[in-house]
Structure formats: structure tokens, C-alpha cells
Specification:
The protein has 28 helices and 25 strands. The chain is α+β, with helices and mostly antiparallel strands. The chain starts with a helix and ends with a strand.
């Protein structure tokens, strides 16, 4: 009977979660209150009845057949329904988090755990290391292509590639001239500031990674770099799998370790990035693989391994402690053996070469000479280590809970082999302490916990040891949850709308947690050690206590630890936060309001419910209450005007509140499209809306007066008399006279005519090279063969408020090649505008 009740409860919880998932939910603040109302569309009672009855019946059916465990993972999702209980939202606001996008993540994790339980007992065929490597190569090549298309190079990557470029074209390491000649424009179009060692023409960055990337870059350019990274990553996965297999003799546990490492952050992102941590992790994992062998191997293999370990500082000087530790581990294994001489010779040659290199390039034997001693702060180590583990932007365990198995697995690994257990712990400290002492322990524009990456294969192998020997004790019982949540979080960071979320702004708020905060501010409950405020430090201390308890549970081999205990601890912690800390619930108000404006415009609900008062609202009354506060943001260096932050707005008609600012101008993308009015409207959703004012009497708020129909999203907008021309993607450059379509690209546009049924003439102006330009719309297609600088006009008769069309430019030119005095290196095709030309 107990199992039947549990199954029915789990089924009902999942059904209610799906109902909540189907509703529109957003907080709305009124009258300056710090506690917002949760506004939710009212689902159909018939839908609720069908969902509860069917899911409850499914739970009873499975429970009577002994498979209640397939639905119990959905029990935490039932917390989503708590927001509809009178008074709960006012007393425990954090429960609102379960009614937003965070609920989607929970549902996917629960489904993954249920599928893992369904597959338990199925004996899959053994997987060879070669299969793991091939699958990893295909995976990372695909992920790398996706990230390259969305983000491109970032952080230090252009600097490493500039060294590679200098090696290829100048055949030297001096990059001062390459910075001066803007050689990075051959592979990167962003701004790059020189990073040179003081008094030298050499880069502060190590030469090891550029040397590894050189063959691929020389053969295939940036795609060759991606191929090299994917190959190194595939070899790393192979090494982790083989080392885990030798240590545990369990193929399932070894595969779980590979999946937990390879499909979570930071590996999913860092394995396709030009950073030195990737080859460093590969060298360290190969060392563990060699140490796990029963025999010492030949003298030449020992010599080669010593050369590789001694070369770690060439990747980055911060890997010097890791290299020294691994060489010491080899020395302990080979002491008084024939191979010790080979080890000492290889290590001596590598370290001697490194010291000679830094003396020749930087004029000092100090390994940190290129950076300067002032860049290392030992007093930052405690805060830095806490940040590398628990920070909401850059913390390892908040983005990849799987590694909790690795920390607890050190205990299991130590029980099996004291040497491997000690080596794993010391390897973790050898990369954590230098990384934490660095001012950029947060990682800049790199994935979370980047500085821990070379030691993460050690933790993955420790997790494999735990799963093979102590799966049913301690945190081993949480393995499916920790693995599934890590993978789902990483995939969310990769594929959620808005672009990959692993690039953070170092502003104290994790972008992935902001993206999941569509109904309540999850980031408010997580430590921000970049800010290092008392609330964050207290929260980090609580998470550290949970980590210690997890390790203690493994030491004691307790069998009482389960997902219910962990969920209960986290819920109680969040509730304590609501009761004891001042909530920053207004931080994401513009994000929420922008979202609810889109939902009001694009979804068909007519009735809404305001909680906890249970006041019923019509769509019109809710729209009247929703106002977007336009926060100040002046990054353009124009102190004469007030600028708002950029926001995403749906199509519709809007008005400004208050007495009205003076000199109002509305912007989208690069150009203003309306001026001097306190109301504006657009039939196209505006992807980057900003407001500029000459003077403000109060901070303006924007109201949605009348929602428009769902339609296109504009990247940039240009005005003309009674018309608006919208660019719908990034394949066009805004220009005062129109949009330049990129060379060999197809750009999408939309025309918003001033009067229905009026003819619009599109002007196509070719650039400085013979070209074939194609204009396509729903009703016509025109192919134009144009000479340099030739212009054509084509008539379009819009049949709706918005008419979409595309323009393809097969050829193009670079302005600086035609005019030596020009600094414009863009690859331009043809210019699209509306005739007559813009004012």
C-alpha cells in the first residue's frame, strides 16, 4: 500500500508540474514592494483534471508492478504546484523558482534519472577506448562548430593564436610587430590589446599551446585549430577511460566517469577552446595512465613521459607545481629501478630548456618574470578556492555537481591505493592554489572552474572508483542525480536561447542562473564570491559544510543518504535565506517584465491569477500593471545624454510613464528610428531596444499599451519617410544609407510600410566588385548581375503589416583594398536600402 501511495503521489507531482509548465508565470512588483506577486495564467480545469488523473493512475499502475522508482524522480517537481497554495509565496518566495524555466531543468533531470533506472540491469556490450575516442572527437567537433558560430574566439584565445600566426608567417616568437600591424584581423575581428612581457617583444602567454596548434592552423586555419582541439579532447577521454578501467576493472563505472567529465562544464566548453588547460590535462591523465600500469615500461617511454611532464611550464608557468608533483610520483615508483635514470634525464632536459628559454626571452630565471610578482596574491587563496568551488559564475560544484562524486571518491581511491588517493588530492591542490592566488581566479571569459581543469580527470577517475566499489553507500546513491543534473546544466548553458552561457561578465551574477530565473531570482540564493558580501560568504560556508558531510558519509559508508535528504537540506537552506537575508528580488525585474511582455504579446491566455491574493486579472488589466523600468547604462562615452540598458521588446505599442523626459530618441541596433514622441509602436519585435534622453525628471518606465501579433525579431532598424527597414540577422552591417550584406552571405530583412498596400521600392547598390545579387520574397525572386557600383531598384507590394525578404550577395570586396587610406577591412557585398535614400 505504501508503494501505491508513493507512486500515485509521484505521478500527481509530475502531472501538476506539467500543468504549471504550460502556464505563463512571472513576478510583478507593484508600489515599490520588495515581495512581488506571482502572476500566472489560469489553466483549464479540464486540463488539470486530465493531467492529475492520468499521471496518478500511471503511478498506481507502475507501483503495483514494482516499478514505482520510475516516477519517484518527479517528486521534487511537485514543488512547482506549491506556488498555488494561499500564503506560501509570501512566506517562502523561493518556491516560485520551481514555476519557471528551472522547472524545465528539473523535469529533464528527473526524466534522465528515470531512464537510467529503466536501463538498469541491461547488459550493454563493452565499449573499447577507440570507440570512446571517436565518439568524443565527433562530439567536440560538433560542439566546437556550434560555439564558433555563436561566440567565436574569446578571452586569451586571440593572443595564443597570434603567437601561432607569428610562428607560421614570421618564424619567430616576437609578437610586438604583429600587434602593431593588427595581424589578428586575419582570424579575429574583435579588439585585441597587446600583452607583452615588460621590456620585451614577447607575449606573456606560454608558447606550448601555439606550438601544438601550429600544424592545424597552417593547414586549415581556424578549422584546423578546432580539429586539433577535438583531437586532444578525444585523446583525453580515451586516457580517462583507460585509466579508470585499469584502476576499477569496471566498464560501466569508467564510462560514467567519461560521461560526467566530457559532457559537463568546464570540459564541454574548454575542450573546444584554445586554452593551455586542455593539453595540460591530457599530459597529467597520461601520467596517471602510466602510473596505473603494473610494469614500468621501456626506458625510452619513461624518458618521453618525463619530457612531457617537464614541458608543462611551457604551456603556462602555473603548471610548474603540477609537473613537479607528477615527476615526484614517477620518481617514487622508479626509485632504485633502472628507469629512474631515464626519468631524471628527461625531466632535467625539459626543465633546463625551460629555464634557458625564460632567461633568453625575459632576461631572468624567475619563472613568473613575464607576469611580475605582483600578479600572485597568496592572501586571496581561501577566497579563490571558495570561488572555484562555489561561486555562481565560476564555481565547479554549482555547474557540475557530478564532481561531488570525485571529492568523495578520493576516500574510496585512498582505500584502494594510498598513492593514487594522495596523488589526486595533491594534484587538485597544485592547480587550485596557483589559480586561486591569481587575480583572475574567476576565469574571465572562460568556462567555470577553468583553472581546476587539469586536475578534473583525477576527480573523474576517483568518481569511477567510488561507482565501482561504493555505489550504494554515501553520495554514491546520488550518482544518477548528480550526473544527470551536470549534463543537463551544461547542455542548457550551450543551447538555451540567448547564446552559450559559459561566458560570464564577472559582475557577480551567473548568466545560466539568470537564464533559469524566469519566475524567481535563483542567483539570490547562490554565493557570489566575486562580490564577497557577507550573505555570499555565509552561503559558501554552508555549501562547504555539505561537501564535508558528503566526504564524511563516504568515510562512514552510510546507507541513509538519499536525494530526499539533499533536497530537504537545499530547500531548508533556501527558506532560511528568505527568513534571514534581505532579498534582492528586484535585481532581475527588467528581465522578468520583458519576458512577460513577450508572453502577453505572443500567447493567447485571456485570464490570469495574481498570487497570493488570488485576484483574477484580465489580459488588459495585467498589461496595464506591467511596466519595464529603464535602468541607466552609459557605455558609449556620451555624457550629454541619459541612456538606458538594452532590452528585448515584443511587437506592440508602448508609452513612457511620468512627466516625460526631454529629447527622447528610441534606438534599435545602431540607429534611431523615432524621435520626439513619448509613444512608439512597431510591428516587428525589437531585439536590442534602447532609449536616449537629453534630460530626465524621473527614471522612465515603459508600458505595453497594445500587444502586437507575433512576428520577426529585428537585430537593427533603419528609418525612412513613413517606413522602417529591419535587419533580422547578423549577416548585414548597418550603414547610414542602408545595410551592407556580407560577402558570400544571405541576409534577411523586413519592411514595415507606413500605409497598407503602398508600394515600396528596394534599392540594391553593388560594391566594388562584379557581383550576382538575389532578392527573394514569398511572391518573387530576382537575380541581378551587377557591375562594380551599379544600382538597381525593385518594387515590392507588401500584403501585410510586415513584408519579409532576403538578399544574397555571392561576391564582394574589402574597402581597404580599393582605398589604401581606408581602415575598413569588412568583407562587403551589396547594400540594401529603401528608395528614395535615407535622410
Amino acid at each position: 500500500m505504501k508503494q501505491v501511495v508513493l507512486g500515485a503521489a509521484a505521478g500527481v507531482a509530475g502531472g501538476l508540474a506539467l500543468v504549471v509548465r504550460a502556464t505563463l508565470r512571472a513576478p510583478v512588483l507593484e508600489g515599490g514592494s520588495a515581495i512581488p506577486r506571482l502572476v500566472s495564467s489560469i489553466p483549464s480545469p479540464l486540463l488539470v483534471l486530465i493531467a492529475v488523473a492520468s499521471s496518478g493512475s500511471l503511478g498506481v499502475f507502475l507501483a503495483r508492478r514494482g516499478r514505482c522508482d520510475l516516477l519517484t524522480p518527479f517528486l521534487p517537481c511537485g514543488l512547482a504546484a506549491a506556488v498555488f497554495v494561499p500564503g506560501v509565496f509570501a512566506r517562502a518566495p523561493f518556491l516560485a523558482a520551481f514555476a519557471g524555466r528551472f522547472l524545465d531543468l528539473l523535469l529533464v533531470v528527473a526524466l534522465a534519472v528515470a531512464l537510467s533506472r529503466l536501463a538498469r540491469g541491461i547488459h550493454a556490450p563493452a565499449i573499447s577506448p577507440r570507440t570512446v575516442g571517436v565518439a568524443g572527437f565527433i562530439l567536440y567537433l560538433s560542439v566546437g562548430a556550434w560555439i564558433s558560430s555563436k561566440v567565436g574566439l574569446s578571452g586569451d584565445e586571440p593572443h595564443y593564436l597570434l603567437i601561432t600566426y607569428s610562428l607560421l608567417h614570421d618564424r619567430d616568437l616576437a609578437v610586438q610587430n604583429n600587434y602593431g600591424e593588427l595581424d589578428h584581423r586575419h582570424f579575429y575581428q574583435g579588439k585585441v590589446e597587446p600583452r607583452l612581457a615588460p621590456g620585451t617583444p614577447y607575449s606573456v602567454h606560454g608558447i606550448g599551446l601555439p606550438l601544438l596548434l601550429l600544424p592545424g592552423f597552417a593547414a586549415f586555419g581556424l578549422f584546423g585549430v578546432l580539429l586539433t582541439e577535438a583531437l586532444l579532447s578525444a585523446l583525453l577521454l580515451c586516457a580517462i577511460y583507460q585509466a579508470s578501467l585499469r584502476i576499477t576493472a569496471s566498464a560501466p563505472a569508467s564510462l560514467a566517469a567519461v560521461l560526467g567529465f566530457g559532457l559537463s562544464s568546464p570540459a564541454l566548453f574548454l575542450s573546444v577552446s584554445a586554452y593551455p588547460e586542455l593539453p595540460a590535462a591530457l599530459v597529467a591523465t597520461l601520467a596517471v595512465l602510466w602510473l596505473s600500469e603494473s610494469e614500468s615500461g621501456s626506458g625510452l617511454s619513461i624518458f618521453g613521459c618525463a619530457l612531457a611532464l617537464g614541458a608543462l611550464p611551457f604551456l603556462h608557468v602555473k603548471f610548474l607545481p603540477l609537473g613537479a608533483l607528477l615527476i615526484a610520483a614517477f620518481a617514487c615508483e622508479l626509485w632504485r629501478k633502472r628507469g629512474f635514470v631515464w626519468l631524471a634525464s628527461g625531466a632535467g632536459i625539459s626543465m633546463g630548456t625551460f629555464l634557458f628559454f625564460i632567461l633568453f626571452t625575459f632576461g631572468s630565471l624567475d619563472p613568473t618574470a613575464s607576469y611580475g610578482r605582483q600578479r600572485i596574491f597568496l592572501d586571496r587563496v581561501p577566497l579563490g578556492i571558495g570561488g572555484l568551488l562555489f561561486d555562481q559564475e565560476y564555481g565547479l560544484l554549482l555547474h557540475a555537481p557530478f564532481y561531488l562524486l570525485g571529492f568523495a571518491g578520493i576516500v574510496t581511491l585512498f582505500r584502494r591505493s594510498a598513492m593514487l588517493g594522495v596523488l589526486t588530492l595533491l594534484a587538485l591542490l597544485s592547480v587550485a592554489i596557483p589559480g586561486a592566488a591569481h587575480p583572475l581566479w574567476s576565469g574571465g571569459t572562460s568556462p567555470p572552474a577553468r583553472f581546476l581543469f587539469p586536475a578534473l580527470p583525477f576527480l573523474s577517475i576517483a568518481a569511477a572508483a567510488l561507482l565501482s566499489r561504493e555505489r550504494e553507500v554515501g553520495v554514491g546513491r546520488l550518482a544518477p542525480w548528480l550526473l544527470a543534473s551536470s549534463v543537463v546544466l551544461a547542455l542548457s548553458m550551450l543551447f538555451l536561447s540567448g547564446g552559450p552561457f559559459f561566458l560570464n561578465a564577472k559582475d557577480g551574477t551567473g548568466r545560466i542562473w539568470e537564464a533559469l530565473s524566469t519566475s524567481w531570482n535563483l542567483a539570490d540564493y547562490l554565493p557570489s564570491l566575486v562580490r564577497a558580501d557577507p550573505r555570499s560568504l555565509a552561503t559558501a560556508a554552508g555549501l562547504f559544510a555539505l561537501l564535508v558531510l558528503a566526504i564524511g558519509a563516504q568515510l562512514q559508508k552510510t546507507r541513509r543518504l538519499g536525494i530526499a535528504h539533499l533536497t530537504g537540506a537545499l530547500v531548508l537552506g533556501a527558506w532560511a535565506h528568505d527568513l534571514t537575508f534581505v532579498s534582492r528580488s528586484t535585481d532581475l525585474e527588467p528581465h522578468w517584465v520583458s519576458r512577460i511582455m513577450h508572453d502577453l504579446s505572443e500567447r493567447g491566455e485571456a485570464r490570469f491569477l495574481a498570487l497570493p491574493s488570488f485576484e483574477r486579472l484580465s489580459r488588459e488589466s495585467l498589461a496595464a500593471r506591467v511596466s519595464l523600468p529603464l535602468e541607466a547604462f552609459a557605455d558609449d562615452g556620451d555624457p550629454r545624454h541619459w541612456w538606458s540598458r538594452p532590452y528585448s521588446l515584443p511587437a506592440g505599442r508602448f508609452r513612457l510613464s511620468g512627466s516625460g523626459p526631454e529629447g527622447v530618441t528610441f534606438f534599435n541596433g545602431e540607429t534611431a528610428f523615432q524621435s520626439g514622441e513619448l509613444e512608439f509602436s512597431s510591428a516587428v519585435s525589437l531585439g536590442r531596444f534602447r532609449l536616449r534622453a537629453r534630460r530626465l525628471s524621473e527614471t522612465p518606465r515603459l508600458f505595453l499599451v497594445e500587444p502586437g501579433p507575433p512576428t520577426f525579431v529585428a537585430v537593427a532598424t533603419l528609418p525612412t519617410d513613413g517606413l522602417r527597414l529591419h535587419a533580422l540577422d547578423e549577416e548585414a552591417y548597418p550603414d547610414p544609407e542602408g545595410f551592407w550584406v556580407r560577402k558570400a552571405s544571405r541576409a534577411s530583412f523586413a519592411i514595415e510600410p507606413g500605409a497598407a498596400g503602398s508600394e515600396v521600392r528596394i534599392q540594391i547598390a553593388n560594391g566594388g566588385a562584379p557581383n550576382v545579387v538575389t532578392l527573394s520574397s514569398a511572391t518573387r525572386e530576382e537575380i541581378l548581375r551587377l557591375d562594380p557600383w551599379e544600382e538597381r531598384e525593385l518594387a515590392i507590394l507588401p500584403g501585410s503589416p510586415v513584408e519579409a525578404f532576403s538578399v544574397e550577395s555571392r561576391n564582394g570586396f574589402r574597402p581597404d583594398l580599393l582605398d589604401p587610406g581606408s581602415r575598413d577591412r569588412r568583407e562587403l557585398g551589396a547594400r540594401v536600402s529603401v528608395a528614395p535614400p535615407f535622410d
